[in-house]
Amino acid sequence: MISKKSLDDLKVFTEFEANLIPGGVVYGITEGDTMTWVKYSDNLDLNVFYVGLKLNHNSTTMTSIREKRAISQNIPRSIYGMRLTVSSIPIIDEQGNSIGAFSMAIPKLHPVVKAFPDFAPMLSEMFAEGVQLRLTDLNKIVLTQSSQKFDIPSLKEGVSLNENSIESKAIKSKKPQSEEVNSLEYGVPVRLSAYPLFDEVSNEVVAAFSVTTPKEIAVNLRNMSSNLENNLTGISSTIQELAASASQIHANQQNLNTTINDITALSQKINEVSHFIKEIADETKMLGLNASIEAARAGEFGKGFGVVANEIRRLSDQSKDTIPKITKLTQDIISKVDESNKKSENSLSASQEQAAATEEITASIEEITSTCEELNKIAHSL
């Protein structure tokens, strides 16, 4: 208990002490049931205690006065709009009567709220694209910390929470919430995350901690990945058509090569026929010569037969003269066929290489497409 005589000294002490308590404090002196003196910390925005305030009979202070003992109670948010720990000590006069109380009300802050000024500035610079960190109570934004790279000026301290805000959703659901928002609302695509903060004793939600990060790089990466994947799909389709064409060309080249070989074989047969004709011509000439000799022996009776023999020899000579021409033409055909055959074989080899290269390209594109899919998944997880 506190003696009435020491109140002046106590006031001097609290004037100095008020701004040294983290989170702020409000001191008050009550005489009877009315507050006669109040001292706030400079950083505490709580105007519920004031000189002239009549206290409720069941309040912590009035209970302390009645029972002549120091009392400390946790006051829920519903009473003063802020969770408080109120402690009251009776004030006694010279006769030992309890005539009032000295009270101290300290905001009851969640550990995250207490630590926010210390960790938030460091944490805000650890995000590559920037970040805005926020702490709220159940109704409004209480504290904010933005990085140098990113800020949302519209979300500042004192702004009331919209019922659709990520913090309100976390508070109502009592579960962490996360969502992505396009660039229309905040100027750039962002990811919003909020986490409910619970009272250590009652386990009721008392605040929310939220993180907003820009996702412009991730969205651009996602779009690039999708575009690349779409383009690769088109290229892959074209490559498959080219592969089918290459296979058809290869089959045609094989057929052409077979046909050329058949022509070569026919040319060889023509050459054989030419040799056969030459032999017949030689034999025919010999027969014509013998016939002429026999016609000469026959005299007058063999003249007609001699004419026929001469005609046979003339036709034999013409046939024999034609053989070199046929032979040359046949050799020319064989030469051209050989040349075409070599080109066909080269083309066949090239088509085989093209088909193999096409298969390799198709496999590479499939691998790149798979990589794009993984990249897209990573972009969505950022």
Characterization of the model:
This is Methyl-accepting chemotaxis protein signaling domain protein. Keywords: Transducer. It holds the Pfam family MCPsignal. The chain has 382 residues and is of the alpha+beta class. It has three domains: 2-108, PAS domain (Beta-Lactamase); 112-214, 2-Layer Sandwich (Beta-Lactamase); 220-381, Helix Hairpins. Helix content is 55%, strand content 19%. The chain has eight helices and eleven strands. It has helices at 7-17, 60-67, 77-80, 111-124, 166-173, 183-186, 216-298, 303-381, and strands spanning 2-3, 26-31, 34-40, 71-75, 84-92, 98-107, 132-136, 141-146, 177-181, 190-198, 205-214. Helix 7 (216-298) packs antiparallel against helix 8 (303-381). The mean pLDDT is 79.
